[in-house]
Amino acid sequence: MAAAAGSTLLSLAAAALAVSLLISTSDAWRPTATPATPPPLPVLPIPSSSQLKWQRREVIMFFHFGMNTFTDSEWGTGTEDPSLFRPAALNATQWMDAARAAGASLVILVAKHHDGFCLWPSAYTAHSVRASPWRAGRGDVVAEFVAAARSRGLDAGLYLSPWDRHDVRYGQEVAYNEYYEAQLHELLTGYGSVSEIWFDGAKGKNATNMTYHFQEWFQTVKQLQRSINIFSDDGPDVRWVGDEKGYAGTTCWSAVNRSAITIGEAGIEKYLNEGDPRGRDWVPPECDVSIRTGWFWHANETAKPLAQLLEIYYNSVGRNCVLLLNAPPNTTGVVEDADVARLREFGQAVETIFGTDLAAGSVARASSERGGGFEACNVLDGRDDTYWAPTEEDGRRNGYWIELRRPAAGRPFEFNVVRIQEHVALGQRVERHAVYVDGAPVANGTTVGHKRLHRLPRPVAGRKVRVWITARRGPPLLSAVGLHHDPFVAAGAM
C-alpha cells in the first residue's frame, strides 16, 4: 500500500510538472504585444535614396565663373586668350560662406562653359587654367572649389558643358565624345565625391551639328560615382524645370516619361514644368535661376531684391522643387559684398518664416488612421520618416481630410503661410487639395509632393485648420502640415 501510494504521488507530480511545462511553453509563444501595422504599398515610381537626399536640400547654389567673367559675356566664342583669366584674389571659401548664408547644402561649379575653357588643368586640352597666368599656370579652380566646400561642410557638384566652341574635335561625333568622356573621367576620379553632375543641351542656332552620346555619358558617370545625381532635361535623376526664372508649374509632378523627352529639344518646356501623373520615371525638377540678370558677373548688374528672391522660393521649393540659385564671382575671384549680403538676407528671411511652426502644440485628427505608427499626430513631429496614413477605404469618393485644432484654452492660430508635405519616399499621390480655417476656404491647389507652400494675401485666424485631399493614386501619406507667419508679406515687401 505504501509503495502504491508513493507511486501515485510520483505520477501526480510528474503530471503537474508536464502541465507546468506546457503552460510555460505556451506562454513563451504567446504574443506579448499587438503586431505592428505594416506601411502601405508604394505607388510607383518612387525616388532613390540619393534623390530623396537631394530633394530635402531644398536650396542649392550655382557658381558661374570662367572666361566669360573676364570678357563681360554670357556665351563666349571659344577664341579667347587664356591670358585673360587672372583673378587676383580668388577665394573659394568666401563663395562657400555665401552659400551657407543662403541656406544651401550643395554647391555646383561651372567647370567648363560653352567657350571650352577648363577651370582645371585637363590633360586633354591646352585651353585651360594651365595656360593662364593665374597661380603661374599651376592653379586648379575645381580643386580649390571642392576643398573649400568640404571645409565648410558642403557637398560639391560640377557642370561640364557639352557644347564646346573651342575644341577642334567638336562636330566629329566619335572624336569629340571620346574627348568629353575623358574629361568626365578626370572630374569624377580626381576630386573625390561629387553629389551632382550637370548636363544640358544648350547651343546656338548656328552651332556646328553634333550628336552627344548622353546615354554613354550617363552610364560612365554612374560607373564612376554610384551615389551621384545626374541633371539634364530628362534626368535620369534630376530634370530641368523648363525655364530659367526659378518657377515650377502650379501643378508639379516628380514623375515623367523619359522616353518622351529629347535633351535640348524645344517644345518640351511645359511637360518639364508640370511633370506627368502617369509618368513611369521618378525625375524631380530643379529650378535654376541667377541672383542677378545674367549667369556670369557683369559690373552693371545687381542682385534681385529680397521680395523677388522670396517669390522665387515660394514658386520653386514651395512647388515640389529644389531651388538652384546662382551667384557669380567677379573678376577678382570673390562674390560681391552686396550679393553676399542679399544671400544672407534671403537665408535669414527663410529662417524667420519657417523657423517657427505655429501649429506646434495643436491636436491633430483625421478622417481615419491606418493603425499604430501612422497617426494624424505624425504631421506635427517635424520628422520626414513619420507620416499620417488613412485607411485604404477612407476617402475614395469624397476625399480625405486631416485637421489641426487649438486647445480650448489656447490662442487661435494666426498665420499667412500653410505648409503641406507628402511622404514621397512611397510615391507622390495628392492630385488636389484645399485648406479651410473654421470652415471657410483659404487656399487650394493640385499637387503637393515634397513640399507645397500656400502664401496667403493676409493673415487669418482660427481654431481649426482642415486640409481636404483628393488622391486617386492611393491613400495620401502626409509627413507634415505646418502653419507659419511671413512678416515680409504683412510689411508689404512683396
Strand order of the largest sheet: 1-2-3-4-5-6-9-10
**Overall radius of gyration:** 29 Å
Helix content: 25-40%
Q: Count every beta strand, where a strand is a DSSP E run of 2 or more residues.
A: 18
Which term fits the overall shape?
Answer: globular
- H-E string: HHEHHEHEHEHEEEHEEHEHEEEEEEEEH
Mean pLDDT: 92
Strand content: 15-25%
> How many DSSP H or I helices?
11
Separation, N- and C-terminal Cα atoms:
105 Å
Query: Which structural category fits the helices and strands?
Result: alpha/beta
Any low-confidence stretches, pLDDT <50, length ≥5? Answer: 1-29
Q: Sheet bearing the most strands, described?
A: 8 strands, parallel, barrel
Can you tag this structure with a few keywords?
disordered N terminus; alpha-L-fucosidase; GH; 494 residues; alpha/beta; five-stranded antiparallel β-sheet; glycosidase; signal; 18 strands; secreted; eight-stranded parallel barrel; single chain
